[in-house]
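Dear Dr. H.,

I hope your travels went smoothly. While you were away I took the liberty of generating a structure for the chain from your last submission, since the lab meeting agenda had it listed for discussion. I wanted you to have the full record in hand beforehand rather than looking at slides cold. The sequence, exactly as received, is reproduced here:
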Amino acid sequence: MAPRKRNYRKEYDEYHAKPVQKKRRAGRNAANSKLKPPKGKEVHHKNGNARDNRPSNLAVISKSKNRRMQPKRKTRRTWDMEIVEVATSIWPIIFGVITVIVILAKLHSDTEILKEKVRTLFDLFNGIGKGK
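The corresponding predicted structure, in token form, is as follows:
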């Protein structure tokens, strides 16, 4: 299987362009310009706050040590599996609700009610899929 191509524009728009991320990046850049670490070294913020550039909070350490000290993040695979688990637990409910709506619409012999309810249901679940 070929590796998935990254959409850098989308990554920037959805994450890096946010005001909070810009402030964090500005803090890291300010720390780097203050200490000017040599090649293979990085500036480490002892309290984890990239905007806290007090000299007592900064240290120059190796890149590998700095990476080991970073908080653990969820991998993409873990995140994808959580989405799959949620989706598989929701689909039986979705089909059950649609079945009930179809039965009720047939009892009332009103196709407009059926169309409206199904449309509302799909809008609702589309919103869940997009994280709303």
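Two observations you may find useful: The radius of gyration is 25 Å. Residues 24 and 31 are 11 Å apart (CA to CA).

With kind regards,
E. W.
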